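Subject: complex prediction, re-run

Hi both,

The earlier run crashed halfway through, so I resubmitted it with identical inputs.
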Amino acid sequence: MCRWLAYSGTPILLDELLYKPRYSLIDQSMHSRLGVETTNGDGVGVGWYEPSDQPVPALFRGTGPAWGDVNLRELARVTRSGLFLAHIRASTGTPVQQTNCHPFRYGRWLWCHNGAIHDFRELRRDLMLAIDPDLFPSVAGSTDSEVMFYLALTFGLRDDPLRAVERMAGFVEQVARAHGVASPLQMTVGATDGDRVWAFRYSSEGKSRTLSFSTALTALRALHPDMELLRGLSEETRLVVSEPLGELAGAWNEVPESSYGVVQKGDDELGAFTPR
Amino acid sequence: MCRWLAYSGTPILLDELLYKPRYSLIDQSMHSRLGVETTNGDGVGVGWYEPSDQPVPALFRGTGPAWGDVNLRELARVTRSGLFLAHIRASTGTPVQQTNCHPFRYGRWLWCHNGAIHDFRELRRDLMLAIDPDLFPSVAGSTDSEVMFYLALTFGLRDDPLRAVERMAGFVEQVARAHGVASPLQMTVGATDGDRVWAFRYSSEGKSRTLSFSTALTALRALHPDMELLRGLSEETRLVVSEPLGELAGAWNEVPESSYGVVQKGDDELGAFTPR
Amino acid sequence: MCRWLAYSGTPILLDELLYKPRYSLIDQSMHSRLGVETTNGDGVGVGWYEPSDQPVPALFRGTGPAWGDVNLRELARVTRSGLFLAHIRASTGTPVQQTNCHPFRYGRWLWCHNGAIHDFRELRRDLMLAIDPDLFPSVAGSTDSEVMFYLALTFGLRDDPLRAVERMAGFVEQVARAHGVASPLQMTVGATDGDRVWAFRYSSEGKSRTLSFSTALTALRALHPDMELLRGLSEETRLVVSEPLGELAGAWNEVPESSYGVVQKGDDELGAFTPR
Amino acid sequence: MCRWLAYSGTPILLDELLYKPRYSLIDQSMHSRLGVETTNGDGVGVGWYEPSDQPVPALFRGTGPAWGDVNLRELARVTRSGLFLAHIRASTGTPVQQTNCHPFRYGRWLWCHNGAIHDFRELRRDLMLAIDPDLFPSVAGSTDSEVMFYLALTFGLRDDPLRAVERMAGFVEQVARAHGVASPLQMTVGATDGDRVWAFRYSSEGKSRTLSFSTALTALRALHPDMELLRGLSEETRLVVSEPLGELAGAWNEVPESSYGVVQKGDDELGAFTPR
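This time it finished cleanly. Structure:
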């Protein structure tokens, strides 16, 4: 299992979210409070969209524990972005290597995952065969998470993200059934095209890993009128996190079981997620 | 491209071959004389069969340049074996990671490769689909070399190594033809089951990477009566190398183009290699 | 802080102690129960004395978390030794790098440490100046633990280990006093010359990290007559550990506060440790 | 030995110099043409001054070969700076670890070095003792290059860089003489405070490693009126390099033996370097 966060809003230094908050993502690499594993020391990654004239988002991925990654600490101190995805990894069996670190990238898209496909070793071949042959050469690592990403791309992630991820989940469950694997899918997923952020919470058994999103800024400022950081952020700033950061009362809403959310300009969306 | 060696004979410290000779394998990681690339700094690996009661050979694989691998240097100093395979890697495009380092292992078998499948990215899916579904979950990395190994296993490596590797080569060429890829295969391969060592030299274009085997010990001792190292080795001791070590006159014979050899108890074999 | 173990006795595979027991040392790298930190993911090392004709013990040191070190797992499976020292690291501020991993080695000696010199950054220069100029070039890393080792060597570790370590501890406390640092030293130390094993437990404040040694084999066999592993081990086999392995009732004795112990042929020793 | 470059001028993507030119610095990591070693695969680093409101420059340092560092490639693609120092390392004996990678940083200062102090192991203690005790705790690695930096800081680098480096060189030679070491110092050094760049070329034996600086932009544009890249750069843009990049005729001037140069607003400086 793993931990991740997605940020969308007023450009800030990565530092502000990766290192500074109490229970920051990097803290969680050593001491997660809500994760299935308390240690997430098998790699770290962050993807961001600055400068915005670049055709693909930038990616930094390290294979050591996040808490000791000196390069990430430097990078976070000088990199400002209005949209980024960060992830810390606890391997569920696949090797610790850069190509297995999240986020995964394809074109403008980034993807990160907390959870697992159970008995992935047995299902892997059938799942990989279903990946669009044009996309197949881009699969670089060996995780279930990356295969899920390429299946979602195959099923139309770039055109209709909700439907594509629902089809991916449905397909994984169908293949698992054929192999006699019960309750195969456990996932929270964060995905972005550099414009909107999608978050998904689902598990075959109906007991998904935790996922939260941040309260509207206006409401949060009313609760905490003295917090300077909050004043500088736009109304539309949002965070989606595996595990709440900091201790701000009223700051976090849990994403319901079997749901999806979209962070975007204008009203955000929240709705039911149903594997197809 | 890469460099490798296989040793079979009187048990010696790995050190004796990996570090001590002039032009040793580890030297070649920085200064290969005969390789297509002069630098082979993208990983190193060694597999050996001691203690012999272990069900599978031992494996050490490092992702940094061989010349600076402190753990390998230590290991080589204290590990004695009568059969081992060592390899230094120069990536032809796939990531530098432990799962891409040779030798690859399956059960009692070890496999290492110098060369490439051209346009492997395009051919990879079709090649992987042909791997026996029972073997598929064991594919851990992303190299052409490992896919060749699992294809050979699929085609019967454990029963009839020559025929299995010939079928693998033929299959790679057939898939390449279907994709319009000319001269797809370039390889020297070393493989062993812990008892015999097979070596293969082949390329679709008929210009294969160099491969040599060592002269019979009796002949070599006659040429160099004063060399102490040679006295301690049994008649049956043999080396197969991508590139000759040391400068011993008369020590090395080139494996002919499109050939295979077997190092084994009793007479060794040398014959023609024909993709099927 | 860190965790370590020392084994002396009938040669066994490293595996038997590093991986197989419940609460094994490698388990402790992710989930220590008694350590100040629960995670010890900043490196791992093991030193051993086979083959015995080597002038110096062999050393393997990895910078990643022990739980994911594939090479160590392989090594432990095939390496048999009657004397070894193993260590997992949780950095107290110095960089994660191979030269900072324990055990440290000088000639026939190995040294590992759990604890810290408080305010080491401030004291480091004065401590390093006291290292014998002939030994100084061998200091390779930047930890307090290694400086303690070289100070002990300077003060005669090779001739009178107890006295040398007592002088080292006394000297650290004296330098700390001069800098106004209170309660400077916290340590359990394991040291060996390949023949005997010394263990030390001491802290300036009198609240030292845990340290235990194993019960005499005869007594242990009487308690657990059905345990096969125990039958194969000689009377003189002993373990010294930061944290008990397994759950064997009656297997472990705590080393008292401010004490030292010696595991050796004939009677072991246990006595008071007094910084000089 | 190593290779390095310093850039000062119109902000550009690091990419433009680290990867794009023929014979780029990253190319030189595998195939240096002018270096004493042709391979510089023991680490890579880059330091830069963006965003400019940060108290210290940003630093990225990797321990693997530069040619395979995926994170550096990403970083170079999205990082724009008007002043940066980059370095590729070929170890002369000290360990391959992040704390031994250049550039070294202290406050606003960055420092990188190509060359060596001969018999550094023997001289290291005396050299380290001369480092200002207040600076001593910041020495993190074990190279001669870093010790040279801290000696220069001790001798006043921040106030009078030329004089401080001359005193450092003089001091190294004096200590070497006392130890009977002939021709101890070999160096090209690049140093910057984020405003000006100093470059030094010196060796005790008068045969220093190569060092070049770029021709004035006006002259270069006159020679190559059709080169687009050149048009976007200010008059004051300068490069200092261990080894010329690209093949632009008339682009490079060698720094004379025993000289220093300063790249700064207004006229640059070039003068004699004399150890004191």
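The radius of gyration of chain C is 18 Å.

- K.
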